[in-house]
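Q: Hi! First time doing this. I have a protein sequence and I read that you can turn it into a structure. Is that right? Here it is:
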Amino acid sequence: MKTSKEVLLESIKEDLLVYLKSGKLSPLPFLNELNLNINKVEDLLKIHFLLMDEVKDYILNLPMMIRELKVSTNLTKEISYNKIRGSIDWKETIRQRLNTNYKDKTLFSYNKRNKLYNTKENVVLKKFIEVLYDIVIGLNMDRFTGYDWYVEGEKINKIVKEIYEKNVYMSRINIEGINVTDRMIEDVAKNRSKLYSDAAKLLRKYRQIINFIDYEEIKKLFEKTFIEIADENTLFELYWVVRILRDNACNEKMYIVDGTNNKIASWEDGNLLYNIYHNSTGSDNLIFKIGFEEVENIENEYFRRMMAVVKKTHEIADKLFEDKGTLGNIFWSGRPDIIIEIIDKNTGRIVKVILGEVKYTTDREYMIQGLKELLEYVYYIKEKSIKGMYVFDNPQSGIEVEGILFVDNIDFKPLHNEIVKVYGTDTKEILL
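A: Yes, that's right. Below is the predicted 3D structure, encoded as structure tokens:
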């Protein structure tokens, strides 16, 4: 039986929280595999906030509660001719007529009642709804309505947009330039109306989450939201990256992946520099490609047919997608799940490469398939700086190559003196 997502997360949660709280590690490179287009950790926290039960309940009840919106009033004295918008002040009316034209029967002084929408309660309410609106619109939550983890998402998005954009009373509350202070929030949180008190409490919760103050809520992010969003294979890859760092790195420098480079971390050990990459071909010094020109002159019937299969695949793919050169002039290419480059700090050259393949499986056949893929990376890796020279088993390259296969809880015998290692989830320590 495969290790559950909850168990995987529990074993690395504390490390993740330390990395996240210190701004060291972003889970985004793993989430990016799911095409969520989440650009920063704060976006993930905002999604987590919107998924909280109390937030969803508030939004779903908002169309009914908004009727409780209250305004304050004040009286001002107005002078008008013919048009009267309030109760007539006869004493002031007579005085005004005597001062101007006592025969003018069209002049009146009246008390005008003005509605004031910018009360403290309404300002806090508008600020909270603005936060919800910024999440729904800014993160384009409409794209997630088909996911199981965003239950009732379509209804939630619609309510937030209609209240913020179309509610006539909400439009009259102007919070531009107003600083909604913590004191204001605390005062409104004591209001008897749930419309106001819950808005204030949830706004306070939002600020605590987004500013990494509410540590318990951040823990829930990984206990619930991250599990809901991340698929099993994604979480399993993150699990092994964190375990490698825990068992091998010291004073590591973490990197927030920006889409141009999937370097996760680096650390030093004596004269050696370690760089670890996820779902990447590593630095620009390594190549994981073999072109047709390199293998097309091999005289072997089996290999000739293999070449024909690959070329035919490319040809049909081009027709299927009407995109010439979809697969390019590539006979083989790959991208390991994990790459660790070990560099001599004196020379700046790579002295060892560790290639990792992750298979979230308890199935032996699938594990062996992963072993085959790993060995392809080991045997086919090239170094770019030496005219695309193959690295493995090549004394001229000066680079040692090793492979690690990461699997789930499978019974297997330990390997000795092999070019690959195999680690399962029951392995106590990962040694590079």
